[in-house]
């Protein structure tokens, strides 16, 4: 038996039901938002994330692969592979800089900037349709407050909640 298990309490059946319902709603929302990007823009959620991150950089400023991967909280290899596919589609371009040419800058092409702007509008419409329009102002405020509390609670631990960062046991997801 794991020692920390003695301190861990299981969830009541209604708590498990609540958790399962929330997780299902989250999966369905993510699925519909992803489908909208694929269907209406011909891009994946990952491509959308890269396009928006580059689009938000000051005009004319490129990002380094390391900056981009850190901003997205992704592994550098994942970003590099995706950038290769996006470069082949004409969305991004890489530039060499530095004396040895090893620092690679990433910037949006005109096609990439247009794709980003279109996808932002489409995605915003879908966020409104599938999420915001279904909430009362009170529900939206409660979700925002809870989300901010959750971020403040988890982020200081580097993605590990307080229990797991102190050697405790995490429950099922």
Question: Which short descriptors sum up this protein?
Answer:
8% strand, globular, 7 helices, disordered C terminus, single chain, 173 residues, 61% helix, Arc Repressor Mutant, subunit A, three-stranded antiparallel beta sheet, mainly alpha
Describe this structure in words.
This protein is mainly alpha-helical and 173 residues long. The chain has a domain at 32-130: Arc Repressor Mutant, subunit A (Orthogonal Bundle). Helix content is 61%, strand content 8%. The protein has helices spanning 13-41, 45-56, 65-72, 76-88, 110-130, 137-154, 162-165; strands at residues 63-64, 92-97, 103-108. It has a three-stranded antiparallel sheet. Helix 1 runs antiparallel to helix 5 (110-130) and helix 2 packs across helix 5 (110-130).
Largest sheet: 3 strands, antiparallel
Briefly, what CATH class of one domain? Mainly Alpha
CATH superfamily membership of one domain: Winged helix-like DNA-binding domain superfamily/Winged helix DNA-binding domain
* CATH architectural arrangement of one domain: Orthogonal Bundle
- Show unreliable segments: 163-173
Number of beta-strand segments: 3
Mean pLDDT value: 86
Order of strands, main sheet, comes to 1-3-2
Q: What share of the residues lie within helices? A: 55-70%
Helical segment tally?
A: 7
At CATH level 3, the topology of one domain is Arc Repressor Mutant, subunit A
Question: Which secondary-structure class do the elements indicate?
Answer: mainly alpha
Basic shape: globular
Beta strand %: 5-15%
Whole-Å distance between the termini?
21 Å
In N-to-C order, the SSE pattern is: HHEHHEEHHH
Radius of gyration: 20 Å
